[in-house]
């Protein structure tokens, strides 16, 4: 409108009201020590902490020690209600894996955002950790 109240231009724009937030409340990869050929169970739980339904994609990746993705799982999150929770369970068949350390990463993409990634470490190498003994000299 101009100073005298005449309409100069008009537009209609849709917008959303509400808070789009979510978090991963549980993330596990078991067993932590596996043999090549074993199945590693991966579980992730996502909670909508916002005030509106959330739609997005849950991503779980298994990465080798160099950061290369050796397996990836994707799941749709469809209109998860506020205060709602959804869980995803996957199984990684480690046949063909190399001996070494692996990192399992999980996160959820939604509304042009991402949750903080959750990380679990798994390995084929059994390690022994010895206790540290400190002695005080008089």
**Can you identify the CATH class?**
Mainly Beta
Low-pLDDT residue intervals, each spanning 5 or more residues: none
Quick one: how many beta strands?
8
Described by strand count, sense and barrel closure, the largest sheet is:
5 strands, antiparallel
User: Mean pLDDT, rounded to whole units?
Assistant: 95
Strand content: over 45%
CATH superfamily: Immunoglobulins
By DSSP (H or I, 4+ residues per run), the number of helices equals 0
Q: Give the total of domains.
A: 1
User: What does the radius of gyration come to?
Assistant: 24 Å
By secondary-structure content and strand pairing, the structural class works out as: mainly beta
Through-space gap between termini: 87 Å
Q: Do you know the CATH architecture?
A: Sandwich
Quick rundown:
It contains no helices and eight strands. The chain is an all-beta fold and 138 residues long.
Walk me through the topology.
Layout lengths: L21 E9 L8 E10 L5 E11 L4 E12 L4 E9 L7 E10 L2 E2 L3 E6 L15
Antiparallel strand pairs: 1-2, 2-5, 3-4, 3-6, 6-7, 6-8
Characterization of this structure:
This protein has 138 residues and is mainly beta. The chain is 0% helix and 50% strand. The protein is built from no helices and 8 strands. β1 and β2 form a beta hairpin. It is elongated and about 90 Å long. The N and C termini lie far apart (87 Å).
How would you describe this structure in keywords?
138 residues; mainly beta; Immunoglobulin-like; 3-stranded antiparallel β-sheet; 8 strands; 50% strand; elongated
